[in-house]
Amino acid sequence: xxxxxxxxxxxxxxxxxxxxxxxxxxxxxxxxxxxxxxxxxxxxxxxxxxxxxxxxxxxxxxxxxxxxxxxxxxxxxxxxxxxxxxxxxxxxxxxxxxxxxxxxxxxxxxxxxxxxxxxxxxxxxxxxxxxxxxxxxxxxxxxxxxxxxxxxxxxxxxxxxxxxxxxxxxxxxxxxxxxxxxxxxxxxxxxxxxxxxxxxxxxxxxxxxxxxxxxxxxxxxxxxxxxxxxxxxxxxxxxxxxxxxxxxxxxxxxxxxxxxxxxxxxxxxxxxxxxxxxxxxxxxxxxxxxxxxxxxxxxxxxxxxxxxxxxxxxxxxxxxxxxxxxxxxxxxxxxxxxxxxxxxxxxxxxxx
Length: 352
Fold this sequence. Notes:
six-stranded parallel β-sheet; four-stranded antiparallel β-sheet; alpha/beta
């Protein structure tokens, strides 16, 4: 059996220490579709058709699970409709099954060699995610030290300025993706009631071990979570809000978006991302595929474009776009400032 390279790992300049052979490792394998998908906004598919017609080929799923169990791995979950398969095993088993190498760098696990697949799986597998546990994204909000000197808007002000949305969200479900932090229900209720809006219908949805765990730091991930939740809760007070909490890894991010799409929400909000150069080619492809699923069933995925300037937080002196905002299947949002009067203007107060 010949092993074929799937994708190179992300660069890592530091030093790593070896994983113990028996250290548990969980990965998410993303399978390719059984047929090419071309989203058509004029004729969205229903979710059942998406899963049946454009999910994974059952034969491909069988080949993957056969390879995994033959390598001693446990199949935790396998869903042909969403094309996601979760596998668990020891570090030694995972490295052997996928022809790769892993190491520790502090609290992170780092992939240090390319993923290689048996030739029998070439064409079946898009990506093997979760090998590298470094943060896949950062939250796209900042606290301004002199915010009182700026023009500030409540969510109601913004809704009025844009004359959007047309209704109050009755019968709609909004999915919000979060990769850390959390919210306190009492805080959200108090904020909404302070603006004359009732308590929202709010549900925290755990994905791959993620959870609503507020840390009490408004300048950290909690600030992003509360901002996301409270804006939606005020602007569409009658909508159901599902907040998908996942680990901040490529596997967690992709799984959270996939879960929201296959939960059949109406719109998804993402305020996390990172420069395209910090994603592997296969993880980008897997994420694009998840967003294409959303587009195919008529779900709009709004993604913050980032607030790190044209360098997007990178220090190599070249421009960078933020992903997943740069995906052709998502709706990149942001990049403008709304003055008290007049039209929006482009802003760039980042590093470049």
